[in-house]
Amino acid sequence: MTDGTREILRVSDLRTYFPVRSRGIIPRTIGQVKAVDGIDLAILSGETLGLVGESGSGKTTVARSVLLLVRPTGGRIEIDGQEITGLSSRALMSVRRKAQMIFQDPYNALNPRHTVGGIISAPFRIQGVEPPGGVKAAVQELMERVGMNPEHYNRYPNEFSGGQRQRIGIARAIALRPKLIVCDEPVSALDVSIQAQIINLLRDLQREFGVAYLFVAHDLAVVRQISHRVSVMYLGHIMETAPRRVIYSAPLHPYTHSLLSAVPIPDPKRQRERARIVLQGDLPSPINPPSGCVFRTRCFQAQEHCAVEVPPLVEIASGHWVACHFPVATLPAGMLTGRVALAAQPDVPVRRPQPVHGQAHQ
Amino acid sequence: MTTTGESLDRPFLSVTDLAVAFPTEDGLVRAVDGVSFSIERGRTLAIVGESGSGKSVTAQAIMGLINRRAASVSGEIWLDGQELVGLPEDEVQALRGSQMAMIFQDPMSSLHPFYRIGDQITEAIRVHRNVGPAAARREAIEMLRRVGIPAVERRVDDYPHQLSGGMRQRVMIAMALINSPALLIADEPTTALDVTVQAQILELISTLKADFGTTVILITHDLGIVADVADEVAVMYGGRIVEVAPTEVLYNRPEMPYTLGLLSSVPRMDRELPERLDPIPGNPPSPINLPIGCVFQPRCNYSDRVADGACSSRRPDLVATAPDHLVRCHLPAQERREISINVLRVLAGGAQ
Known about the structure:
The structure holds 2 protein chains of 2 kinds. Chain A has helices at about 60-65, 90-100, 115-125, 135-145, 160-175, 190-210, 220-225, 245-250, 255-260, 270-275, 305-310; strands spanning about 5-20, 30-45, 50, 75-80, 80-85, 100, 180-185, 210-215, 230-235, 235-245, 315, 320.
């Protein structure tokens, strides 16, 4: 982190709902998908906030809402101190200079009919910026910076592999030296050897330019490699936010525990001896989420109270926020022996022995 | 591997010098270029590789799913004493689903969107066995229960679109296992799923494997999953197998520089955080224009240690470095082991 105090992004009570319409000649709105339902987060300059969650958790909707690629239903978004939800498209132009995006699919994020040079120079064109030394020189410098051959300036995206295309997307995103880049699953479509190259590149660029990242991904190991802090999302809500080390070594939310224990580690001996929690069933429908805590239907800690009251996100220790009525520091003893075979009866709530409630240490 | 012996001393599945090539406008794509391996009954072999390594095409060739008009398939594939390459299509069809079955990354590639899941499984039973409709339906319901479909009596008449991704994956597994195939090929079975659902599916595959004694070929790019379920691992690169070893050996004493590169590239949660990842430089080779010598040479950090530029001129063979450990590399074994020890030491550097 370079300048550790300035807030580049602040999101308060962000809500993004999508209408569910009935079929027929005259569609009526019959419900809402609460994809993002009241989340708060902040990112400092030069910092990376990892946003993890499973599909349907709303993490991608957060990424898109932050840059107003989808219009939020409510809440505030401040980029570099400026509230943007009320801005017109014209006024948003100047904000987009400060905040850019990198997409998951390097195949669909680039216009196949434009050359690499055309794609990377688009931000200069759109924003009316004339870089010193001319656009072409600036673009070639960017290409070199992201590890591409600047002589490929006139080639088309289809001449490049997925990893190279992602580099093009990154060059375009950093062209105007933004203060924030929203990265939506930037490496999940890439092979592991290429994935590591891109992660290293993103880190190097952060060191060099002090750019902040909102790094949205489902791969917890990747997020750990790049993030300073991590937020865990589930069904439109943030369950836990903490510094990286705390999330990975001392999580308190039962969902974070489950998620971490489900990631297989590339070490045969340890992986086979490891305790893991196999969660029951699937994510509930976001059209009709559970009452109270949205995670309670799959939670090994759930009690009656969890169905009644939504747990607020509270700061349990400095910088460690948890939304849970019964946080746990260590897993109940019964869950720590080898493979936890709960998989046989999904969708059936399992009664666990009364767990020991977490002493929120630290 | 035996040479000409009786089927009795042949391994359950043995693949010898398998090659699959697709002619295209740009040239001949050698997707699989001389692959040999064998599996004993009841074991799990993982085939690991990145996209374009030829792992899926190898699986499709075993299943007889390569269109013979679009590609040439050569080599030998012996399954339980029967040669599959060159077998007439109707005989392969009879084996598929009964002796061998396959599950895919996308369950909708196996499930028909217009038919109820119960009917699809019932049909799979009745195509291969002489079972009445009522008995077949009972069997289908029982299998769906086995794979963990909740409220089976109600769900059996659902259409695929009414189920979640994880549930569809279970239905596909039920359909693959309904005729107790001796061989199950799972091609990236959990790649499209979330980690918590992936954990459920892997748990399910290992339970079913234990119950039915199925032999499994698991195709994946995820070294964590391999560590979890495989007995042996074959690493593929550029259409060739570059290393084969028991799982423990592959992770603790790998010898091929590509395998080391893969292990170094993966960010992992069980180690102290490295300052940077150590990726393999460059990009995978084009299958139309494979390097002449070792396919990995252009990205290998150690090829300059081999005399006479052999790595870029001569194709290395897959050679035993220990009885069950094969490596395709020109480096002397001693030197490979030293490199491996050093790389793994750096990787484990911060281990708690």
